[in-house]
Design a protein that fits this description.
The chain is α/β, with parallel strands linked by helices. The protein is built from 9 helices and 7 strands. It starts with 5 loop residues before the first strand and ends with a helix.
Length: 277
C-alpha cells in the first residue's frame, strides 16, 4: 500500500507574526488546520512547511526563493494582506506553478489576485466551518496538483494573459566535496559568531550583530585580530584602516575565500566600529 503513496512537497506562504488583531498563536492554529487538511488526502502524503523553513542553511531569502520555486504546490494565505505574503505570492505566480490561495472572511479580495479563486475560512476558526473548509482544501490540493502534471494543462495563471515566457531559476551542479567544504565554512563562521557573543556576555570584546554574510566574515576577522594582537576593540579604532583591511583580506584568504571588492570589505570594517563604539 505504501508504494502507492505519493509524497507531495507543499510549501506554505502565510503570516506568522501578529497582524490586524490576529496573534502568532492564531497563525499556528491556521497552519495546523492546513496540515490536517492535506494529510487526509487519499494516495498522498505531505508535511507542509513555511517556505522560509527550508532544510538548507544560509540566507533566509535564498531559502524562501528556493521554497517558492521547488515546491510541488504552494498554499498561500492572504488573510490580513501581509506585505511579505503578497510579495511571495507574486513571485510564485511569476514561476507559473500550482498555487492555491486561501483567506479568512474578514479580508477583502486584492485587485491583482482577485481573478484567482480563493478558498475562504472563518477568522474565528469555528469548528463546523473549519471542518468544511478542510474538506474543500484537501480536494482542491489534490485536483490542482493532478491537473498540473497533465500534459498541456490549461490551468495556468499566466496563460490566461496570453503567451508569456515563465521565469526560471538557473540550477548548477556543485561537486560534493566543494559543497561540504562550503557548508563547513558556514558552520565555522556561525560558531565564531556564537563564541564572540558569549565572550561579550562575559564582559570581553563586544560582538556586534552582522546583517550580511560578508559582514559576518569581516566581523569574525576583526574579532580574531583583537584576540591575536591582544588589543581591545576600542583600541583598534586607533589602528590605520589599511592595516585592518590587509589583515581581513589575508584572514579570508586563509579560510579559502577570495575577496573581490576591497571597498566592500572596508565598508564592513567601518560598520563594525559604528556598532561597537
Amino acid at each position: 500500500m505504501t508504494d502507492n503513496i505519493k509524497q507531495l512537497n507543499i510549501g506554505l506562504v502565510m503570516p506568522i507574526a501578529p497582524i490586524d488583531g490576529c496573534s502568532s498563536e492564531h497563525w499556528l492554529d491556521v497552519k495546523r488546520i492546513i496540515t490536517e487538511a492535506v494529510s487526509s488526502m487519499p494516495g498522498y502524503s505531505s508535511n507542509p512547511k513555511i517556505v522560509s523553513e527550508g532544510d538548507s542553511s544560509g540566507l533566509i531569502h535564498k531559502r524562501i526563493v528556493e521554497g517558492l520555486y521547488t515546491s510541488d504546490l504552494i498554499i498561500c494565505d492572504v488573510s490580513c494582506k501581509n506585505p511579505n505574503v503578497m510579495f511571495e505570492l507574486g513571485m510564485r505566480l511569476a514561476f507559473d506553478k500550482p498555487t492555491i490561495i486561501i483567506k479568512d472572511d474578514k479580508t477583502d479580495y486584492t485587485f491583482d489576485a482577485g481573478v484567482i479563486e480563493h478558498l475562504q475560512y472563518p477568522r474565528d476558526l469555528r469548528y463546523k466551518s473549519i471542518v468544511e473548509f478542510k474538506d474543500l482544501l484537501s480536494e482542491k490540493v489534490r485536483a490542482t496538483y493532478e491537473e498540473s502534471i497533465k500534459e498541456g494543462s490549461p490551468n495556468s495563471f499566466l496563460k490566461s494573459f496570453g503567451t508569456i515566457k515563465v521565469a526560471s531559476i538557473k540550477e548548477s551542479e556543485v561537486p560534493a566535496n566543494e559543497f561540504f567544504i562550503e557548508t563547513l565554512k558556514e558552520i565555522q563562521n556561525d560558531l565564531e559568531i556564537i563564541k564572540s557573543s558569549r565572550n561579550a556576555k562575559l564582559g570581553k570584546n563586544p560582538a556586534p550583530e552582522p546583517r550580511t554574510r560578508l559582514e559576518r566574515m569581516v566581523f569574525n576577522s576583526l574579532l580574531k585580530y583583537s584576540q591575536d594582537k591582544k588589543v581591545s576593540v576600542e583600541e583598534m579604532t586607533s589602528i590605520k584602516i589599511g592595516v585592518l583591511l590587509d589583515y581581513v583580506i589575508i584572514d579570508l584568504q586563509d579560510k579559502g575565500m577570495t575577496p573581490k571588492d576591497p571597498q566592500l570589505l572596508q565598508n564592513a570594517i567601518f560598520k563594525f566600529f559604528d556598532l561597537v563604539t
